[in-house]
User: Fold this.
Amino acid sequence: MSSTTVRVPAKINLALGVGPVAADGLHALATVYQAVDLCDEVHATSRDDDEIVVSVHLDAERERGSVPLDGTNLAVRAALALREATGVTAGATLAIRKAIPVAGGMAGGSADAAAALVACDELWGTGLGRAGLEPIAASLGSDVPFCLHGGTAMGGGHGEQISPVLARGGYQWVFAIAERGLSTAAVYAEFDAITDGVVTEPEVPDQLMAALRAGDAEALGAALSNDLQPAALRLRPELEETLAVGRQCGALGALLSGSGPTAMFLAGDAQHAMDIAVALAAAQVCVDVVQAAAPVAGARVVG
Ligand code: ATP
Assistant:
């Protein structure tokens, strides 16, 4: 094997319940993830030396310089973690093609880490497969196991404890991409300031699970929730207007994705998604609009 390509989807949180800070300093989460068909690709190629080299092609020119090319890139960290776990010493060149917005609340870095794990497992013939890669994924970040898994799933612990949920049907989403990203750490700090540390154990709403079981888009739209949204809106008040445009267009649900600033809108069907996308673009409340179907599979070899 001298090269392989892995495609990996962005995530959204249909529900994001944020609880108290645990002993390790991280918040307890109760979340429901869904993988959406807005994908990065990682192309991994063998090398004659033992270097892990990364390059990044950004679909959006405005994001130039926003993704590190050193050992802090999450894809590089993933490759190194796989080497550590398996004793492999081979190198790899990882060429990332990014379509997932950077610092957009859609887990773009975690997605690349998951893709790099799958790509290097294939390239180096380490044969861990999805189940074997999961603990390494969890050590890299809370969202990384879900990016491996894909579909629709609950996330407990800090989000890394994945369990599948019974979900019927497919959904049409529209995303309003903001000009600048938001730091996840800054949003959590704002959350802490708002709640002053007084938060209850997080739970996933029953109505949301019932809507997913029934495949009922209208009920799902009404049940979407995100505990981080007030904090993200305090940091970016202009996002209220973005959400309002989608609501005026009859979106079944309108919410920020994770820590934001990407706004997500649930449409009734493909034509409705197009109407929402056109309204967002016309209102000039974002720099880009993307439509994507969900759920889709997690990180997978495509070539
Ligand atoms: P999350 O939803 O998991 O909180 P996010 O989608 O808001 O994350 P990311 O796109 O993952 O944010 O990027 C967060 C930061 O991580 C970026 O600002 C960047 O400096 C760094 N980073 C490291 N590796 C990558 C990568 N492969 N792709 C994108 N960002 C990366």
Summary: Residues 114 and 198 are 34 Å apart (CA to CA). The chain has a mean pLDDT of 97. The first strand starts at residue 3 and ends at 21.
